[in-house]
Amino acid sequence: MNKRILVTYFSASGETKEKGDVLASSLNADTFEIVPSQKYTYEDLNWRDRNKPFYKRDAPFMRMTHDFKKAIYISINKEKQYMPKEIEDKSILINSDINKVIKNLKSLI
């Protein structure tokens, strides 16, 4: 069976794009960058402001996970992670270095 893999990402600063490209390259996968029709401002992406409602507070992928019934949010980060309560039951948090995760994924595919 021939498996096809797609790495999809949104990157406001370019850091996630870099990691997405590394992941896709190591998995021999295609990439798709989600580009908003209007560029996000710092205020749009400031998830630490707990006074904002969920849909204005959290990153676009978190919002999409909330809005789409079958979506699952997966986050790979070696730092402390935050997950809004609105999507906790639809989230997978991996506390590790992304390079280690990529190596493990490659061995499974």
Outline the structure in words.
The chain has a two-stranded parallel sheet with strand order 1-2. By secondary structure, it is α/β, with parallel strands linked by helices. The termini are close together. Helix content is 37%, strand content 15%. The chain contains five helices and four strands, in the order βαβαααββα.
Topology (elements, then pairings):
Elements: E1 6-9, H1 15-27, E2 30-33, H2 42-45, H3 54-57, H4 60-67, E3 73-76, E4 91-94, H5 98-108
Sum up the structure in keywords:
109 residues; single chain; 37% helix; alpha/beta; two-stranded parallel sheet
Overall outline: globular
* Sheet with the most strands: spatial strand order: 1-2
Helicity, as a percent range: 25-40%
Number of strands: 4
The fraction of residues assigned to DSSP E strands is 5-15%
Brief sketch in words of this structure:
The chain has five helices and four strands; from the N terminus they run E-H-E-H-H-H-E-E-H. With 109 residues, it is of the alpha/beta class. The strands form two sheets. The protein has a two-stranded parallel sheet with strand order 1-2.
